[in-house]
Amino acid sequence: MTDAPVIGVLALQGDVREHLIALAAADAVARQVRRPEELAEVDGLVIPGGESTTISKLAVLFGLMEPLRARVREGMPVYGTCAGMIMLADKILDPRSGQETIGGIDMIVRRNAFGRQNESFEAAVDVTGVAGDPVEGVFIRAPWVESVGASVEVLAEHEGHIVAVRQGTALATSFHPELTGDHRVHGLFVAMVREKRMPRSL
Predict the structure, then answer these.
(1) Which residue of the set 18, 19, 82, 158 is catalytic?
(2) Using CB atoms within 10 A of its CB, is residue 146 exposed (0-12), middle (13-18) or buried (19+)?
(3) pLDDT of amino acid 2
(4) Which residue from 164, 160, 36, 61 is spatially nearest to 105, judged by alpha carbons?
(5) How would residue 199 be classed by pLDDT, with cut points 50, 70 and 90?
(6) Does the active-site annotation cover 82?
């Protein structure tokens, strides 16, 4: 599609390939982003799951942290899954030493809230804005959102805990929709990017 939005996947660590596939299936042009000049060329960005401390340190090392913060402040659509949700939080309850976030969503997140790797699970999640059946959520050392500010929309909860949120052009989920073959959450994000790209009426 000639008008397909160009969406990057932050390719420092984590399940980058799965997001590239999901974005392409949702009619976006998907690219890996590792350098500031690559970030400057995309309409939106996915921050994948992985290890949030490692992603944070690599973003600083690659000179990406400040450009990421600047683009998010400017309103670039951004979607974070699992570790990506932590990266988009304005505050982490239990940060590792030296861990930084990009910020952009007025929320407090608890790392590894659902347990360790061997406590990973799948669950059906009703996500506001995603039509049809519930989304199959894959939770792997997943965070949850402890609290949100007034401008944050809660899109989904699991067992009383917030697992999906949106604030303006920023979207975040505790779970990994890229691992299921169901591309509806990525479709929601692609729609957010398209909306942002549309010229405003005079």
Answers:
(1) 82
(2) middle
(3) 57
(4) 164
(5) low
(6) yes
> In this predicted model, what pLDDT tens digit does every residue of 122-136 receive, in sequence order?
999 999 999 999 999
Catalytic pick among 158, 176, 183, 186: 176
Query: In 3D, which of 3, 160, 25, 149 has the Cα closest to residue 90?
Result: 149
Residue 41 CB partners (closer than 8 Å, separation 6+): 6, 8, 31
Q: Where do we find the tokens 């949702």?
A: 26
Q: Is 98 helix (H, G, I), strand (E, B) or coil?
A: coil
- Residue 25 structure tokens: 């299936």
Q: Which position has the token pair 């399940």?
A: 15
Spell out where 66-139 has E strands: 78-81, 89-92, 105-110, 121-125, 135-139
Q: Please give the backbone phi and psi of residue 65, each rounded to the nearest 5 degrees, phi first.
A: -60, -50
pLDDT tens readout for residues 91-101: 998 777 778 99
As a whole number, mean pLDDT of residues 141-159 equals 96
**Catalytic: which of 18, 19, 158, 178?**
178
Q: Is 176 a catalytic residue?
A: yes
Query: What is the rounded CA–CA span in Å between residue 39 and residue 58?
Result: 15
Active site residue 178: yes
Look up the pTM and report it. Answer: 0.94
What's the rounded Cα separation, in Å, for the pair 99 and 173?
A: 20
